[in-house]
What we know:
Elements: E1 2-6, E2 9-13, H1 50-60
Antiparallel strand pairs: 1-2
Amino acid sequence: MHNFEYPDRNLNFMLFTCLCDSITALTCESDHTWAALDDLPDFPMPEANAELIGMLYTESQN
């Protein structure tokens, strides 16, 4: 569980990771994008996500 405090609210995140051979094979019904880990810095992210992205990099090295 990851917690982040904004001045007006607190957020609690549960981070899940998945691995696949090719992101082109992933499909979904909602409007979002699958992205490779190395491409994440190219996307605008809220401040609360910065530490989560760092956690993904750490986990990928294990």
